[in-house]
């Protein structure tokens, strides 16, 4: 039995369709639309001007109210900070005598006393607690220049080495709270070197005057 082989018949490729010719677009812009004119009567024009003036007045009032509100907020914030600082100052100022008494107790306690270490620990703890509120000690060491804004002079003493206007010693410590003085340091100030009395050299001893010598060549006519 004979088999016939089928051969695939080639399919002819489709020819691309021709693109139709595109219509050219005109690049000329359309003519501008003429503005519309609105005709207002005198009454409408007067009302429009009055509304514009009222709007400007309201805008000015709004700006003033906003500025007043901002100033009010700033003023309230400053007053709140001032009240807080004043409250801290009153509390810390009331506790400064306690700190002074601790220092006096330490100065009066002997080195061999078992209470010395305990007093030092209490003093350090108490000082750290006050420093958390912004407490700072005023510098008033010996040899430091006297500052009337920070120091209070309780005496002026002559000093052979320290110049005038220099701190000799500190009688009571001074403190500041947040860069604001709450108690000045009480100090003794030098008046300078003591005035030395000038030593005059001894006056020379007067020598007796020598008798006047007569010239030997002169001879008085009255002499014999």
Q: Could you characterize what this model shows?
A:
This protein is 38% helix and 14% strand. By secondary structure, the protein is of the alpha+beta class. A hairpin with a 2-residue loop joins strand 4 and strand 5. Helix 1 (42-108) runs antiparallel to helix 2. It is elongated. The chain starts with 41 loop residues before the first helix and ends in a 32-residue tail after the last strand. Mean pLDDT is 81; it is low at 1-7.
Strand order of the largest sheet: 1-4-5
- Helix proportion of residues, in percent? 25-40%
Gyration radius over CA? 54 Å
| Gap from first CA to last CA | 218 Å
Average per-residue pLDDT, rounded, comes to: 81
Tally of strands: 6
Largest sheet: 3 strands, antiparallel
Number of helices: 2
Low-confidence segments:
1-7
Binned strand content: 5-15%
SSE string, helices as H and strands as E = HHEEEEEE
Question: What structural class is derived from the secondary structure elements?
Answer: alpha+beta
Q: Supply the CATH architecture of the domain at 43-133.
A: Alpha-Beta Complex
Question: What spatial form do the alpha-carbon principal axes imply?
Answer: elongated
Which CATH class of the domain at 43-133? Answer: Alpha Beta
CATH-assigned fold name of the domain at 43-133: Hemagglutinin Ectodomain, Chain B
What are the salient characteristics of this protein?
6 strands; alpha+beta; 2 helices; about 40% helix; elongated; Nucleotide Exchange Factor Grpe, Chain A, domain 2; Hemagglutinin Ectodomain, Chain B; about 220 residues; disordered N terminus; single chain; three-stranded mixed beta sheet; three-stranded antiparallel beta sheet
């Amino acid at each position: 039995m004979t088999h016939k082989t089928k051969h695939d018949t080639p399919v002819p490729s489709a020819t691309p369709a021709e693109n139709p010719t595109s219509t050219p677009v005109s690049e000329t812009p359309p003519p501008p639309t003429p503005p519309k004119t609105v005709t207002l009567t005198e009454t409408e024009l007067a009302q429009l001007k009055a509304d514009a003036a009222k709007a400007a007045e309201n805008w000015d009032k709004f700006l003033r109210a906003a500025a007043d509100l901002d100033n009010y907020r700033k003023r309230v914030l400053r007053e709140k900070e001032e009240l807080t600082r004043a409250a801290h100052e009153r509390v810390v100022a009331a506790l400064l005598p306690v700190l002074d008494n601790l220092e006096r107790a330490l100065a009066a306690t002997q080195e061999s006393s078992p209470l010395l270490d305990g007093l030092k620990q209490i003093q350090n703890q108490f000082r750290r607690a006050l420093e958390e509120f912004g407490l700072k000690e005023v510098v008033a060491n010996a040899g430091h220049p006297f500052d009337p804004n920070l120091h209070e002079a309780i005496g002026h003493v002559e000093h052979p080495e320290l110049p005038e206007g220099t701190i000799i010693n500190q009688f009571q410590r001074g403190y500041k709270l947040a860069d604001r003085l709450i108690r000045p340091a009480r100090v003794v100030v030098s008046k300078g070197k003591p005035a030395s009395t000038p030593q005059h050299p001894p006056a020379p001893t007067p020598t007796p005057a020598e008798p006047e010598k007569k010239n030997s060549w002169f001879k008085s006519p009255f002499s014999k």
